[in-house]
Design a protein that fits this description.
The protein has helices at 64-75, 93-97, 122-134, 165-178, 195-201, 219-235; strands at residues 2-4, 7-9, 17-27, 35-46, 51-56, 83-88, 140-145, 151-153, 156-161, 182-187, 205-210, 249-258, 263-267, 274-275, 280-285, 295-298, 303-309, 313-314, 319-326. By secondary structure, the chain is of the alpha+beta class. It binds zinc ion.
């Protein structure tokens, strides 16, 4: 039995074969009197070798990665593996069950809860368990996200660039093996509370990703996630399948289009499009005054639209589009 505050798990992570169990979060509130909230975990192990930790559902309403990990459990024959894969397809299981981005137990965003805290509430405790007990088992971590209810992403590797040159180089290489059309690279930040920065600060190699969004499960994005996972497992030396690195376009942030006021937004672009600075991005209509002329919104920079706001009804300050400009991998 391993434990961290109110979270415990009695699964034997060193056992060969297919093992499934739960992390159990001991939680009590008005809706859960004396409850052990289960967080599912699967281990595929075939002898000694590297370990890859695969995580999805840190945000509960992001589905492509959750489906891709569940598919892998059924589609990877144990005989084709060397070493171990640890899969957490619903890391923030309370949020997954509630179809919410954040946990319904305490309202916390798990991707701001790392490195975690045993006494900091249920979300921080789950974060701490994973960082203290599961991340140290891994040679490589791949975390899967998507746009959730309010975002749409073009399928991309989300690359937090570590200061450590070895971790940094591994992340850049992993992004090519994930093989998404775009890789969006930003500096890692160990104090931001996200999983990426916390894992890299522990000296473990990690890549994150964004597949689709809109609380949907697009077949294209799920297919890309599954294919990318297989390539990552091959690159990490865990799966023997015959695949090659397709490469990617590396990019860095170029600018963001914000909604200057609330309204009804008519976008004239899609996620994944390449746009030019100053081009008309869309029209923002007043919700209550149909005769008021719409506000023309123009792109503040050129580049690839790596994500867009999904709902048409936008609040002031909504990020309507994030733009990225291509960079050579050695110039990131
Ligand atoms: Zn997310």
């Amino acid at each position: 039995m391993i434990s961290y505050g109110p979270v415990s798990c009695d699964l034997d992570f060193g056992r060969d074969g297919v093992s499934a169990g739960n992390l159990y979060l001991d939680h009590s509130d008005d809706a859960h009197a004396a409850t052990l909230v289960p967080v599912p975990v699967v281990v595929l192990r075939n002898g000694a070798g590297p370990t890859v930790l695969l995580t999805a559902g840190i945000h509960g309403d992001e589905y492509e990665g959750q489906i891709a990990l569940r598919r892998l459990v059924h589609e990877l024959p144990l005989g084709e593996l060397t070493g171990r894969i640890i899969l957490l397809p619903a890391v923030n299981a309370p949020a997954v069950r509630a179809a919410m981005r954040c946990s319904p137990l305490d309202g916390a965003n798990m991707n701001r809860a790392f490195p975690g805290s045993a006494a900091g509430g249920p979300t921080a405790a789950l974060a701490g368990f994973i960082l203290d007990h599961l991340v140290p088992l891994a040679d490589f971590v791949l975390d899967l996200h998507s746009g959730g209810a309010t975002g749409l992403y073009c399928d991309q590797a989300f690359l937090c660039l570590a200061e450590d040159p070895v971790l940094r180089a591994k992340g850049i290489e992993a992004a090519a093996w994930l093989g998404c059309p775009v890789t969006y690279a930003i500096p890692a930040d160990a104090d931001y509370g996200d999983f990426d920065g916390a894992v890299l600060a522990r000296g473990v190699s990690l890549l994150s990703s964004e597949f689709g969004g809109g609380a949907l499960a697009s077949p294209t994005s799920v297919g890309r996630a599954v294919a990318g996972l297989r390539r990552i497992l091959h690159w990490a030396g865990v799966w023997h399948g015959d695949v090659a690195a397709p490469g990617t376009i590396y990019s860095v942030p170029a600018g963001r289009l914000l909604a200057p006021r609330a309204g009804l937004f008519e976008p004239l672009f899609e996620a994944g499009e390449t746009v030019v600075a100053g081009a008309l991005a869309g029209r923002l209509f007043d919700l209550d005054e149909p005769l008021r002329p719409p506000l023309d919104l123009r792109f503040p920079a050129g580049g690839i639209v790596v994500n867009r706001y999904r709902p048409a009804l936008v609040p002031a300050g909504a990020i309507l589009a994030s733009l990225a400009e291509p960079r050579a991998p050695d110039a990131l």
